Amino acid sequence: MTKRLLIVYYTGSGNTKRMAEEISRGAEQLGVAVEVKRVEECTLEDLAGADGIVIGSPTYFSNVAWQVKKLIDESITLYRGRQLKGKIGGCFTSSGTRRDGEDCVRMLELAFGFHHGVKIVPGIVRTSRDGEKEVSEMCQRYGMEIAKELLS
Ligand SMILES: Cc1cc2nc3c(=O)[nH]c(=O)nc-3n(C[C@H](O)[C@H](O)[C@H](O)COP(=O)(O)O)c2cc1C
Questions:
Q1: The sheet that has 33-38: what strands, in order across it?
Q2: Is residue 152 exposed (0-12), middle (13-18) or buried (19+ Cβ within 10 Å)?
Q3: Which atom of ligand 1 is nearest to the CA of 127?
Q4: pLDDT value for 1
Q5: Nearest CA to ligand 1 atom 7
Q6: Domain with residues 4-151, CATH architecture
């Protein structure tokens, strides 16, 4: 059966959105059915229903944007039923600096990997110093990596 990957993101000025689109492109190349959603449109049912979940946020004060944290906090109901445990996942951020981006990615890895029990492919960081081509390639490779995990 076709595997379904949900990519959820928030963006303020478009960088994280572009990452989501490139990750989607990468995963689709391996035959995974991808749905890309803004976090404001993502429901808990969307999270519970997907085979894989990738979540992205801009780095705000070394953390995730509140719109993403809101979804994470709401996901406590899924946590109680261990409904995300064992799914495949990933996370990504767009940040001004690498160090702050790594902190943000760590928050996402903690929430989804450590707490929910999602098997996370280590997250990726785009910084404002990175070139568009480089970012696009990194994101597509990441999408492919997640797709391979989903299909294995
Ligand atoms: C409210 C706010 C807080 C930010 N905090 C940080 C930060 O702590 N560290 C950093 O390196 N960049 C920070 N930035 C820069 C953003 O992470 C960066 O511009 C990112 O690419 C935005 O992604 P977006 O285009 O998807 O919104 C901040 C930007 C905003 C608007």
A1: 33-38, 4-9, 52-58, 88-95, 119-127
A2: exposed
A3: 21
A4: 83
A5: 61
A6: 3-Layer(aba) Sandwich (3.40)
